[in-house]
Each structure stands twice: as structure tokens, then as C-alpha cells.
Structure to design on (478 residues):
């Protein structure tokens, strides 16, 4: 009996130690030793009209919303101290990170690390345990994705890293970051992949990897590595007041752009020529969609690829080349990832059924002009919507490019009513209700009565400052 109990205890003890060994911290030393030599420090100089010490070090981040940081001071002084302007300007130094992607000296980093630099210096391991510095040439950059490619010359074959597949990453995987935080070169930190597909409103193609690997000022442009030593992300941003929340550009996005720049190609993106908005639950219900997904076309731009293919305002794009579209960001990234001139297949929800379109993509352009409208004239109340409106005059229709069958100018919005909750504003022009043209108040009231009240929701097509979009109003049945 005692011997049996002893055997059982031994088995339990052995099991315990096996579990302890499995839970033991990972050893990153081999990975750091293997990948570290391919990571470089990047120093830049800029001419600035802002005074500061000669050895001011910082990192320039741009175009980030509140709460996300792309500017970090590193001069040992409080960042909130104002700096006096100098008439002739002076040199400002900045530090960042990067990594070699070829034996002949091509280096990837962030665009904001090297933007507007008058000189770029790369510091790397000379292969003998010492550092060497070399001047770098900016080969090209893409501001919208914050990527840049540098080139240094060397008389030896340089260590380099390869891109991995960021799409196959799973939340919870171990990751390693190597960089130059606060000027502390080749600092290694580890963490896990916290989330994928983060949109932090930094740009139109946000699809960041989120990690809790410690990322600090100076890490920007450095690699985020998987356990095989492949680059799966380029460290780019942090939350200003947070800890353990960093963001990296996925390698699959970065590698395509870097390859284009390296081959001397212009970085170009596909373009549909539509203005889009999100599909929420109310909008999906009003349009008869099963799920609140896809991208609603607020306006098809004249003469652009979508119009040529026969698409219309109010279409909901649900699939591109068979791929389901989750939201507007997903559509932007999907189309931008395709080449201008490429033909794509779009699946669209229109008037309660699915239709297919073939669209030959144009090249993305970000410039648009938007005329402004003026509210005026007598008003008629549409009580269920909590607003007053009137038909457009002939002159206003011409001014706003509105057809004779459409156009009600909103004159006033009642507080705490459906119109205000839907963010309608005085001066907005109502073009359609539930995809039906509204050129007079009686038509709008009829649609509200016959469709809006029974369903509890109504979709209005609105034109504001030259841009058209849709708003969903919740209507009480009482």
C-alpha cells in the first residue's frame, strides 16, 4: 500500500515539474544573437527654426491622432518647455532604427525617421564587435504607409533579415523587438502579439499589429521579429500615456511597397472613385442586409472607374474578388493593394439583391474640391424626423449639381430628435429617402409614413459641401 502511494506521489511530482518546465520563460538569446547584427541605428540632421541644444536627440512622428505619439524629445529636459525661434535656424539631430534586408546594404526604416533630413548616418556592427558609421542615401519613401528605403555602400557582405508572413500570425505569439530606444543601441525587448488589424487613425491604410513588447522613442523603424527570426512588423507608434501598447506595420504590407521602391517603381494604388461610409446595424436593417458589414457608396464620382462600370450611389460593396469586405478600412486596403489598370470583381447589394460588377481600377488620388451650399427660404416641418426643410430653387439645383427630381434643403434641426441624433445639419441637402428621390416635402413624408414608420428606420441620402453620404434615422412608431 505504501509503495503504491509512493508511486502515485512520484508520478504527480514528475507531472508537476514537467508543467513547470513548460511554463518557464523563453530564452531569446539565440534569436537576439542571430538577428541583432542586421539591426542598425539611424541618425539624421535637419535644419530647423526652433532653438535647442546642439546634441538634441528626438524622434519625429507625424499625423497621429491624440493619444498616439510620434514625437519624443530626448535632451534631458521637460518636453513641455517652449523653444525660442531663431532667425537663421540651427541643426536638429534625431535618432531612429532600421534593419538591413540585403547583403549589399539596403535598409528599411520609417519615413518619419528620415523625412526632411539634410543628412542620414547609419551606424552598424563592423563584423568585429565594433561599430562603424556610414552615410546613407534615401532611395525612396511612401508617406501614406510611413515606410522608407535607404542604401549604404560596404566592401563586405552585410548581415540581413528576411520578411515573414504577417497574415499567418496568431494573437498570443511571442515576438522580439530590437532597436535604438533613447539612443541605447541594440536594445532587445520581448512580448506577444496583442491584436491584429488595429486602426489608430494614422492614415488611410491602417492595419497595425499591436504588441506589448516594450517600444520606446528611437525604436521606430526597427524590426518586430517572430521566433524564426523573420521580420513580421516595422515598429512605428505607441500610445503616448500607455505602457506595453506598441504598433507595427505588418510585413506583408511593407514588403510589397519596399520591393516597388527598390525596383525603382512608383508606389501606386488602385482607385475605385467612390466616397464610402460604414454600414451600421440600423443601416443594414433599413437596406435589408443580413449583417452590418461592407462599405456603403455615398457618392460615385463622375468619370471615375466605378461610374464607368455602372455603379450607383447607395450600392453596398460586400465582396472584392470573392473576398468579404468587413468595413470601409478593409475596402480601402483591399483596393489600394491592387494595381491601377487591374480588373476587379465587385459584389454589390442594390435594392434588396446582389449584383456583380467588373471595374478597371484607376490610380488613387487624394485631392478633391468641394463647393459649399447656403441654407435659405421658407420651411416645412417633417415632425417624425425632427427637422424642417424646403425644396431647392432652380439656381440652387444648378449650383449643387442636383437633379430636378431631388433636393430638399434642411433649414433647422430639433434638439434630441431623430435628425440631430443622425448628425444632420442645417444646410444639408436631402437627395433620397430609402433610395427614392425626394424633390418635395410631400414625397418625403409619404416615404416616411409608408416605409420609415413601419420599419422603425429611414435612410436619407445627404449632400453636404459637395460630398454625398447616407444617414440612418430611428423613427418612433408612436
Amino acid at each position: 500500500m505504501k509503495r503504491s502511494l509512493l508511486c502515485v506521489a512520484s508520478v504527480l511530482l514528475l507531472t508537476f515539474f514537467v508543467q513547470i518546465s513548460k511554463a518557464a520563460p523563453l530564452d531569446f538569446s539565440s534569436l537576439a544573437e542571430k538577428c541583432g547584427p542586421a539591426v542598425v541605428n539611424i541618425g539624421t540632421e535637419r535644419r530647423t527654426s526652433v532653438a535647442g541644444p546642439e546634441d538634441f536627440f528626438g524622434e519625429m512622428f507625424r499625423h497621429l491622432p491624440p493619444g498616439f505619439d510620434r514625437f519624443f524629445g530626448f535632451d534631458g529636459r521637460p518636453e513641455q518647455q517652449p523653444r525660442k525661434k531663431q532667425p537663421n535656424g540651427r541643426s536638429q539631430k534625431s535618432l531612429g532604427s532600421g534593419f538591413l534586408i540585403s547583403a549589399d546594404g539596403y535598409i528599411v526604416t520609417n519615413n518619419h525617421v528620415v523625412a526632411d533630413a539634410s543628412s542620414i548616418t547609419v551606424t552598424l556592427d563592423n563584423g568585429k564587435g565594433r561599430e562603424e558609421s556610414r552615410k546613407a542615401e534615401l532611395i525612396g519613401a511612401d508617406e501614406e504607409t510611413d515606410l522608407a528605403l535607404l542604401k549604404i555602400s560596404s566592401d563586405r557582405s552585410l548581415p540581413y533579415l528576411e520578411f515573414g508572413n504577417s497574415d499567418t500570425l496568431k494573437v498570443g505569439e511571442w515576438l522580439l523587438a530590437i532597436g535604438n530606444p533613447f539612443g541605447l543601441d541594440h536594445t532587445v525587448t520581448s512580448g506577444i502579439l496583442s491584436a491584429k488589424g488595429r486602426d489608430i487613425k494614422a492614415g488611410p491604410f491602417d492595419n497595425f499589429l499591436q504588441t506589448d513588447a516594450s517600444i520606446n522613442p528611437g525604436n521606430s523603424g526597427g524590426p518586430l521579429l517572430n521566433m524564426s527570426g523573420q521580420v513580421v512588423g516595422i515598429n512605428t507608434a505607441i500610445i503616448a500615456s500607455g505602457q506595453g501598447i506598441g504598433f507595427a506595420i505588418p510585413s506583408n504590407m511593407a514588403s510589397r511597397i519596399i520591393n516597388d521602391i527598390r525596383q525603382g517603381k512608383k508606389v501606386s494604388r488602385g482607385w475605385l472613385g467612390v466616397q464610402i461610409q460604414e454600414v451600421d446595424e440600423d443601416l443594414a436593417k433599413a437596406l435589408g442586409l443580413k449583417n452590418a458589414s461592407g462599405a456603403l457608396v455615398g457618392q460615385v464620382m463622375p468619370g471615375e472607374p466605378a461610374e464607368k462600370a455602372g455603379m450607383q450611389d447607395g450600392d453596398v460593396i460586400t465582396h472584392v474578388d470573392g473576398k468579404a469586405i468587413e468595413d470601409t478600412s478593409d475596402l480601402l486596403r483591399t483596393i489600394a493593394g491592387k494595381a491601377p489598370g487591374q480588373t476587379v470583381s465587385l459584389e454589390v447589394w442594390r435594392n434588396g439583391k446582389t449584383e456583380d460588377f467588373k471595374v478597371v481600377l484607376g490610380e488613387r488620388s487624394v485631392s478633391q474640391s468641394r463647393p459649399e451650399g447656403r441654407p435659405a427660404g421658407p420651411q416645412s416641418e417633417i415632425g417624425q424626423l425632427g427637422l424642417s426643410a424646403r425644396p431647392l430653387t432652380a439656381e440652387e439645383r444648378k449650383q449643387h449639381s442636383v437633379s430636378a427630381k431631388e433636393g430638399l434643403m434642411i433649414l433647422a434641426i430639433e434638439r434630441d430628435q431623430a435628425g440631430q441624433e443622425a448628425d444632420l445639419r442645417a444646410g444639408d441637402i436631402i437627395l433620397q429617402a430609402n433610395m427614392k428621390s425626394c424633390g418635395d416635402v410631400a414625397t418625403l413624408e409619404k416615404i416616411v409614413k409608408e416605409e420609415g414608420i413601419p420599419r422603425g428606420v429611414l435612410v436619407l441620402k445627404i449632400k453636404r459641401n459637395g460630398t454625398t453620404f447616407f444617414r440612418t434615422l430611428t423613427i418612433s412608431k408612436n
About this structure: The CA atoms of residues 96 and 181 lie 8 Å apart. Residues 380-474 form a domain with the Pdz3 Domain fold (CATH 2.30.42.10). The chain has four domains: 33-151, 166-262, 270-363, 380-474. Residues 20-24, 49-64, 69-89, 366-379 have pLDDT under 50 and may be disordered.
